[in-house]
Design a protein that fits this description.
The protein is globular. By secondary structure, the protein is mainly beta. 12% of the residues lie in helices and 37% in strands. The chain starts with 10 loop residues before the first strand and ends with a strand. The strands form six sheets. The chain has a six-stranded mixed beta barrel with strand order 6-7-12-8-11-10. The protein has a four-stranded antiparallel beta sheet with strand order 18-17-21-22.
């Protein structure tokens, strides 16, 4: 929910919202990822790169994306629905959902580090540096929107939001629609002027939701869109040019991983957190068992400042000019989860954005929610 930088490699997590303290997270780092349970009620979202465009072009493209993606997936499975997502400069991943009646297509960041769903309202026009590239939700126009006038405020690492609470229909793709989902409509903000999204869908556990709001995953279950057996979602991310990633609600994409998956039990019932058993640079272990936060809303893999300095020194010299880096002389990073080792190569933990390289790891000067490690999109 907080740190904007640059994601790297393929990243997959399986989140079971019905049994968060007994099952948990499937972690598959490196190349391919997703989870393998039965093929039931599968809703997918593919990921590709984005460019800033005018609102008319974006809306036109959105309608085409919905139509083409739904047709492709229904050809494979009539129960599946997909919405394409975009990799925004290897910094974050966004996808389109539809809100209200008539539906308004908004591009959101899917975030496991928070639990509320919010969109920029028409009152938030001055929040955005380029309002023409933002789709604002007008609650007065939606015939299905309801509110009691209650207000909210949220603080993220990247800024603050304020607005009012409401409820409206939310469609995550084609026909997967929650009739009455809790929605926070933003009317004022600080620190959210340039990000290329119109809102955020929090996919964290219910305990993180503010103002007693019901999470989107809980709403899918309550309205019967998902069952207790399929109340889960998986996230696949890739930094490969032209390669897709996706978020899957209620099912799996068995074509995106090499079995077997590794399952790590949640460390608490409030966050998507697990125990990282070890972390090493090359053959040198830098930390033993520690609790970490799995956060799709964080760009980098984050760690305490002292450990980060040690890791950076062990990695050695690198340059922003990617073509000049000697990747073959740099160490691998190794992480232990659920009794298995996951390896990031130098080409995976050093981010390449149009030929400019930077580390996909970073330092935490404080511990958000008590976590000194955040496993972000780089992993």
């Amino acid at each position: 929910a907080e740190y904007m930088g640059s994601p790297l490699v393929s990243f997959f997590c399986l989140f079971d919202a019905m049994r968060p303290w007994t099952t948990a997270l499937a972690l598959l780092a490196l190349l391919l990822s997703v989870l393998a349970l039965g093929a039931v009620a599968e809703f997918r979202v593919a990921v590709h790169r984005t460019v800033r465009r005018g609102v008319v072009e974006v809306l036109s493209e959105t309608e085409t994306e919905f139509s083409q993606a739904s047709t492709r997936l229904r050809a494979m499975d009539p129960r599946a629905t997909s919405v394409p997502l975009r990799n925004v400069l290897n910094s974050y991943y966004t996808g389109i959902v539809e809100v209200g009646t008539p539906p308004v297509a908004v591009r959101v960041n899917f975030d496991t580090g928070s639990s509320n769903f919010w969109v920029f309202g028409r009152e938030a026009l001055l929040c955005r540096e380029d309002a023409r590239s933002t789709t604002f939700f007008d609650a007065e126009v939606s015939s299905s929107f309801a509110t009691d006038g209650a207000t909210f405020g949220i603080t993220y690492g990247s800024g603050t939001l304020a607005g009012y609470l409401g409820r409206d229909s939310v469609d995550v793709g084609g026909g997967v629609r929650v009739r009455a989902a809790d929605v926070l409509v933003v009317s004022d903000c600080y620190g959210f002027s340039t990000q290329e999204f119109d809102g955020l869908m929090g996919l964290g556990l219910p305990g993180l939701a503010i103002a007693g709001q019901t999470t989107f995953m809980s709403s899918l279950l309550a309205e019967g869109v998902l069952t207790p057996e399929t109340n889960l979602f998986g996230v696949y991310m890739s930094n490969e040019t032209g390669r897709s990633g996706e978020i899957t609600f209620g099912g799996v994409n068995a074509g995106l991983f090499v079995p077997p998956l590794a399952y790590a039990a949640l460390a608490d019932a409030t966050h998507w957190s697990v125990v990282m058993e070890s972390a090493s640079v090359g053959s040198a272990q830098i930390v033993g068992p520690t609790r970490v936060l799995i956060d799709t809303g964080s760009t980098q893999l984050l760690m305490p400042e002292a450990i980060f300095e040690d890791v950076r020194n062990r990695i050695g010299q690198y340059t922003s000019q990617c073509a000049l880096n000697r990747f073959d002389q740099m160490p691998t990073l190794r992480f232990g989860f659920a009794g298995k080792e996951f390896v990031l190569t130098p080409r995976q933990y050093i981010v390449n954005i149009d030929g400019v390289c930077d580390l996909g790891i970073g330092a935490l000067s404080y511990a958000p929610n008590g976590f000194s490690w955040v496993i972000g999109d780089t992993f």
